[in-house]
TrEMBL record:
<dbReference type="GO" id="GO:0042773">
    <property type="term" value="P:ATP synthesis coupled electron transport"/>
</dbReference>
<dbReference type="GO" id="GO:0016651">
    <property type="term" value="F:oxidoreductase activity, acting on NAD(P)H"/>
</dbReference>
<dbReference type="GO" id="GO:0048038">
    <property type="term" value="F:quinone binding"/>
</dbReference>
<dbReference type="InterPro" id="IPR050123">
    <property type="entry name" value="Prok_molybdopt-oxidoreductase"/>
</dbReference>
<dbReference type="InterPro" id="IPR001041">
    <property type="entry name" value="2Fe-2S_ferredoxin-type"/>
</dbReference>
<dbReference type="InterPro" id="IPR015405">
    <property type="entry name" value="NDUFS1-like_C"/>
</dbReference>
<comment type="function">
    <text>NDH-1 shuttles electrons from NADH, via FMN and iron-sulfur (Fe-S) centers, to quinones in the respiratory chain. Couples the redox reaction to proton translocation (for every two electrons transferred, four hydrogen ions are translocated across the cytoplasmic membrane), and thus conserves the redox energy in a proton gradient.</text>
</comment>
<feature type="domain" description="4Fe-4S Mo/W bis-MGD-type">
    <location>
        <begin position="223"/>
        <end position="279"/>
    </location>
</feature>
<keyword id="KW-0004">4Fe-4S</keyword>
<dbReference type="InterPro" id="IPR000283">
    <property type="entry name" value="NADH_UbQ_OxRdtase_75kDa_su_CS"/>
</dbReference>
<dbReference type="InterPro" id="IPR006656">
    <property type="entry name" value="Mopterin_OxRdtase"/>
</dbReference>
<keyword id="KW-0001">2Fe-2S</keyword>
<dbReference type="InterPro" id="IPR019574">
    <property type="entry name" value="NADH_UbQ_OxRdtase_Gsu_4Fe4S-bd"/>
</dbReference>
<keyword id="KW-1278">Translocase</keyword>
<dbReference type="Pfam" id="PF00384">
    <property type="entry name" value="Molybdopterin"/>
</dbReference>
<dbReference type="Pfam" id="PF10588">
    <property type="entry name" value="NADH-G_4Fe-4S_3"/>
</dbReference>
<protein>
    <recommendedName>
        <fullName>NADH-quinone oxidoreductase</fullName>
        <ecNumber>7.1.1.-</ecNumber>
    </recommendedName>
</protein>
Amino acid sequence: MPKIIIDDTEHDFPDGITLIQACDMAGVEIPRFCYHERLSIAGNCRMCLVEVVGMPKPVASCAMSVNDLRPNRDGTPPTVLTQSATTRKAQEGTLEFLLINHPLDCPICDQGGECDLQDQTMAFGFDAGRYQDNKRAVEDKYLGPLIKTFMTRCIHCTRCVRFMSEVAGVQELGAIGRGEDMEITTYLEHGMHSNLSGNVVDLCPVGALTAKPYAFLARPWELTKTPSIDVMDALGSAIRVDARGREVLRILPRINDAVNEEWISDKARHVWDGLRTQRLDRPYLKRNGKLEPATWDEAFAAIAAKLSALTARSLAAIAGDLAAAEDMYALKELAGGLGSPNVDCRQDGAKLDPSLGRATYLFNTTIGGIEDADAVLFVGTDPRVEAPVLTRAFSVGTSSKGLLPVGLIGTEVDLTYPCEYLGAGPETLAKIADGSHAFAKTLQEAEKPMIVVGPGSACAPDGAAVLALAAKAAKKMGALTGGWNGFNVLHTAAGRVAGLDLGFVPGEGRSRRGGHVRAAGKGDLKVVYLLGADEIDASRLGDAFVIYQGSHGDRGAHRADVILPGAAYTEKDGTYVNTEGRAQMTTRAIFPPGEAREDWTILRALSGVLGRPLPFDSLQELRAKMYAACPHLALLDLVEPADAAAIEKLAGKPAKPGKDRFGLVIEDYYLSNPVARASAIMASLSAMHAGGPEKATGTDG
């Protein structure tokens, strides 16, 4: 381990790190603009110059390795001075050059209060400029409905360019020109199509790239900041919800190295405007074929009157993709108290069965374990859309042979990294399972292969057989050996894993796996309770009495006979379990609008009216009972490994799937849930990706 003296204190550092990393480990802060710990080294800004004793001039600490420093002539370890007059003069001179062309936009810049350039100017700047010539002016670029550009502010740090190529995996940003004429652009000046493009706003240190929807709305010191969890997909990315009063004004990422590092998808970041539009803020009751406002007592009385005239088995409850674990537990207890086994959390018809074992529906490798894999097989999935942040984990994976071998079975899509397209359906998967396919040899030769089963295969009519076949393939390729479990299911619904953990599926002897809609259409079910379930085909519910409990006036509410207004994910404390089985909690950032209430409280109040009061009166009591029924939900931010024996057992089941090709379940990534469909920003992104007018809403300036 190299020994280095930093400001008169000797330290030991691991091999291969840079000087700026060494200084950070030693607790010494070095100013920087272009350097970012998750991106490659560029050495553009020169702000991180430090003095190394014995070297003729200051060195860029981001580009100098600790192993490149030689001991002093007297044999003492190399010495780095971060507070010397030479270092200070170099840093102040660099900052003066960077400010030569920078406009005085601080009073109107949305980066104000969160700007690296502002902070470092306070520490290393000066009160008067010596540059007398005209400042350089650069024409602003159009980067789509999410990013507002002020390219005269750009200092060419290239963080945005490196992020798009190294993390997002697409070459959508680059530089043209040289020297003073250099400009960052998309070349053809079209909107960026990556689902991760909004992260460049966080990376920009000078306000050249800002969030267009957030422009001129607020200053950071006006906002209440609440740590929470994203529910736009099943990854469970760590987010921070910034609100003013009773409105969410922006959503930013939080660092969670185990899940999302510090990136979030564009939908997670910009869906906030949908939280305040098309909201259900009071109960509604259908009278004479028309929904009319009602009181809570009237709505509950209508439900009680309907249920009193029916048998319990005429009731079914379906939970939506955004339902929290507490809400599903309360609904399951209510249905059970009424004597109905007809509950289901798989509104997309996924053939996942929790009775087979938890390992059969989890991403067992874990997100962090992806980097250890040396071969990957995707089955019926498009992770770039279903879990955009995972793009980074798969794209950086390498093996001893170079690039990570990746095979794809299903709809042919662009994964942004090299991929071998193997086939379209179960027949190709069967060849992998019996070892007759050419790619099977690559998987069998890998030390840690993994298979990722997506919703495109699990939601197919023969999904149960496909899952069994995938388990056979995992066993054949050696993905279930030793401490490695390479069988993975990639979910798209934030509430799905918690629902499966709680057993929110039909009881024995009932129509299983999404049969409630069909049963209601046939008249076997008289009452259907939709807990935020908007992705089912409500037109197929026939004459059933529909109770809709949710936050938005979406598809389910349009078919409802009674509407009970619930809370969105930013308005309640709720537990969600991500695709790898990690339990996490959202935190209430604002209160629900109007008469809307948290979902579990609505179910508790309704149970009292129905004469079947639930055995809890507070969130703490509910969670205590939920943890007793499902203990691993109490292990917050931890992944409890599931028993791989369940996959071995699944592999032993007969698997005779059909011949239909695996499709994709997400038709429009930006309009996949009620909150997103209420968002004008998401509508503009959807139009851009569909090739329509990109400036379809007021989010563009």
